[in-house]
């Protein structure tokens, strides 16, 4: 008896010592195949410099369906890893609608903050109900707050795919938020003006979003003809030049200034339309307009980088819809119809820029060709296999929606729509007569990057009541597309020095139960779960009784 008490006492003391040590030292072994709970170096660096409390409010609590419970569990475990790296990371789960006297008012307030709700079906005890969930987190540090979307939707995704996409995105989403709050010196982006580029209101949502990462300024190329040195010096003060849908030709002098900026190490993101065509042009009595080639005088400029922009239109059987009105006055009806000149582009998920993205919407886009040279090229986006190109000039008619397409003609797809070029860029004007004189001319530059996209409208947000809507949101069909996230990834990749963008390459797979097997083998597993424990209890009881009877005779 004394020996038993001594053993029990030793075990209790040992457990106390282990628990006391565990309160001071945090340890965890990640045995998952995909290293789900092992944070990357870039993610760890994102929280390393916080010296004051960082409060993370996760709006994911309450009556949740299984898929959101999994998301909640994965979010908690991820934040525990961040908290183990920096004790200033504090988090809690809340249900923003719980106990609210005016639920509609709370929903309106949250939506005004940019927190989009999700309607989900919850089945409990045979009853089905609709729940409104806000799958968001708010990261608060000092006087700053960053919103973190927890749910990653994809068109046509199953429940399993949606959860996988969301969990795979979590580490990047939180590390990105922590990085925003930690930025002390922002890099600079120049918005190039002077050649008929998109107005600020049509880029407002994108520019507002990237202000969390970068400082933004405008550079107008009009004054190149009078003071090229000054314009180049101003441009050199920026880390990246953004050229969004120019509609007027660049002069040789303007191209030379951009060339010297790029040759000197400046990054660049180009969104170029080689064809002049807009959907609004079709809303006339005839319902037709002429698509014409647009001469931007950039062919020789891009040729040096191994890119050719084609004056054509991509027609794709994987399309996004447009909405047309029928009827007049109060009897008008708005119906979505297929529009083959607006390709719906699905990413190949083969690069940090295009990994785990929602479908991207193009509008009257052309195609690109890549040419062999010494630079490395990576195709970021392509049209579907069921697509083709049409040359211009060409009349475009609204009534094509009434004519079924001939699928046999869509046999030359996978047209390049976006390409990343990397290398030590040489000047386009190397061994050529320079259009203007500069004090210093760079013919051979350092390692550099540029991205060229064949649609200027990728960056264009819609307008409602004079106010810009979120980039990627289509007010007519109420669909969301991945344009904004893709373009943010482009900038982050071109300018990111911390490696944070590479977190997007991490692959996570969440195991799910096979619903078909569950239905087919339901009775079998019920018998095993209920009957097996009873049988084992009976067997062990019988054995113990037999041993006691043999040993003690009772």
From TrEMBL:
Coiled coil: none
UniProt-listed InterPro entries: ABC_transp_unknown, DUF7088, Motility-assoc_ABC-rel_GldG
Pfam families for the chain: ABC_transp_aux, DUF7088
Domain DUF7088 residues, every copy: 33-139
ABC-type uncharacterised transport system domain span: 186-490
Keyword annotations: Membrane, Transmembrane, Transmembrane helix
TM spans (from-to): 525-544
Protein known as: Gliding-associated putative ABC transporter substrate-binding component GldG
